[in-house]
Amino acid sequence: MKRCMSICCVFAMALGLSFGVSTDTQAASSVKVIDGSQLTKDAESTGYNQKVARGEDLLTGYSKIVRMGPGEIYAGGTTIAVHNVERIGIGVVIERAKEEDTEWSFYDTWQKFNENADRVSSKKYLDVEGDYYYRVKCVHSAGEDISSSFTDGIYIEEP
């Protein structure tokens, strides 16, 4: 039964990622935007969860990415519930793009769940290929509520 619930949660998270973000058109600014994320030279970016359509359990969630140096990033996120819930989770997806790209490509993913808790966090330090912009997308789940968040893309230099 727990395995079935885990599979359902992963499916729901994947579904949330595919519908959770709309594509922005590039405005008259010189900053390039891909799928809602600006491509920046900033050292870090934090994105907060999108509104939950209905929700009694999920309070907030966020995604975070930090450039640690050439070819190195810190990536992760946190999900916070209003109160202890039976199961709270976070799914973290790392994506990357070149400046000339029109969409993000998949790089890495992982997930973490806590039981009978009001928060869950997950983070990793990763060695990555330089000369790309990287962003973090997270799916936040608490009880029956699901939401998502994403960061802007930060440029990572070659090591």
Topology, element by element:
Layout lengths: L1 H18 L13 E2 L2 E4 L3 E5 L9 E12 L2 E26 L7 E23 L4 E11 L2 E6 L2 E4 L3
Describe the structure.
The chain is mainly beta and 159 residues long. It has one helix and nine strands. Strands 1, 2, 3, 4, 5, 6, 7, 8 and 9 form a nine-stranded mixed β-sheet that branches. The radius of gyration is 16 Å and the shape is elongated. Residues 1-28 have low confidence and may be disordered.
CATH structural fold name: Immunoglobulin-like
Arithmetic mean of pLDDT: 86
Give, in order, the helices and strands. HEEEEEEEEE
> Count of helices?
1
Helix content: 10-25%
Number of E strands: 9
Low-confidence stretches: 1-28
The domain count comes to 1
Structural class: mainly beta
Strand content: over 45%
Q: First CA to last CA: what distance?
A: 46 Å
Largest sheet: 9 strands, mixed
Described by the principal axes of the CA atoms, the overall outline is elongated
CATH architect. name: Sandwich
CATH class: Mainly Beta
Quaternary structure annotation: single chain
Spatial extent as radius of gyration? 16 Å
List key phrases describing it.
159 residues; mainly beta; Immunoglobulin-like; nine-stranded mixed β-sheet; 1 helix; 9 strands; elongated; disordered N terminus; signal; Fibronectin type III domain-containing protein
